[in-house]
Amino acid sequence: MLPGQIIRELTENARVIGGIDRVSAEAGRDLYRAFARGEIVLTDATTAETVKLMENTFRDVNISLANELLRLAEDFGIDIWEAIAIANLHPRVKIMQPGPGVGGHCISVDPWFLVEAAPNLTPLIRTAREVNDSQPEYVVRRIESILGNLAGRKIAVLGLTYKPDVDDVRESPSVEIVRLLCARGADVATCDPLAADADHPGRRVRSVEEAVGGADALILLVGHQPYRALAPESLHSLMKQPVSIDCVHAWDRTRWEACGFQFHQLGDGREPSLPAPRQ
């Protein structure tokens, strides 16, 4: 169920009841009928559990495709966000949004149950997991391509949760990125009021202004609504170097560059910090 929407989804979403026999399945159905308005489907226990794993694996595999296409876009010298928007005009195409990785206690975990159960039958699922698990390292290498050696660099990071506007940091790729930045010697200040107690090796600060004070770069890892609405005009003078790196396609390049920022966006292969595109 979607964080913040638990009651609505508990009552409205379709439910699958897996029983060890028909009697137990019907007992589960009768319990759910007391509050659930969505469709209730009865099946056996193994099918029900497999359905749950299939749902999260479907999303993981499709996100890994988006993340791999992002890498290709940077290699080809195109903007992945423009390319996805155009591709999704096709009535039977719906490419998902790429980003700094996949987190949460379901999508980033459930596919491994299928891989463990049948490793010889799941090469695609395993590869998708490996792509998404490696995305934080890819993001950090991208940051290095912009800033150079990260040792001693002061970096402000906005967002630590695994997705926008929730307080859950389980398996968060943002936390992993902070860890990787610190391992490379960067001085990382993090700001996320929804995850103030997140465990990571960086410095936790309470405000965006405190995070960017004297910073060499500002990195957006999670598109919380307040961060999407940030005014670059108020941040430029606080930084040592006005460099902004948007990893979730939340900020308007024109506005940030007009304020004097050196603006970078994950997935935009037309940027000069990347190697020359293939011909």
Explained architecture:
- It contains ten helices and eight strands.
- By secondary structure, the protein is an alpha/beta fold.
- Among the domains are: 38 residues, no CATH class; 131 residues, 3-Layer(aba) Sandwich (Rossmann fold).
- The strands form two sheets. It has a six-stranded parallel β-sheet. A two-stranded parallel sheet has the order 1-2.
- The longest helix has 32 residues.
- The mean pLDDT is 95.
What share of residues are in beta strands? Answer: 5-15%
Number of helices: 10
Average pLDDT number? 95
**Can you name the CATH architecture of one domain?**
3-Layer(aba) Sandwich
CATH class of one domain: Alpha Beta
Distance between the termini: 45 Å
Quick one: overall form? Answer: globular
Specify the helix fraction band. Answer: 40-55%
What's the arrangement of strands in the largest beta sheet?
Answer: 5-4-3-6-7-8
Order of H and E elements: HEHEHHHHEHEEHEHEHE
Q: What is the CATH third-level topology name of one domain? A: Rossmann fold
CATH-defined superfamily of one domain: NAD(P)-binding Rossmann-like Domain
Radius of gyration: 21 Å
List keywords for this structure.
Rossmann fold, 12% strand, alpha/beta, globular, six-stranded parallel sheet, two-stranded parallel sheet, 279 residues
In short:
With 279 residues, the chain is α/β, with parallel strands linked by helices.
What does the secondary structure layout of this molecule look like, with pairings?
Elements: H1 6-12, E1 15-19, H2 22-32, E2 40-44, H3 45-76, H4 80-87, H5 110-117, H6 123-147, E3 154-158, H7 173-183, E4 187-191, E5 203-204, H8 208-212, E6 217-220, H9 225-228, E7 243-246, H10 253-258, E8 262-265
Parallel strand pairs: 1-2, 3-4, 3-6, 4-5, 6-7, 7-8
Helix pairs in contact: 3-5, 3-6, 5-6, 6-7
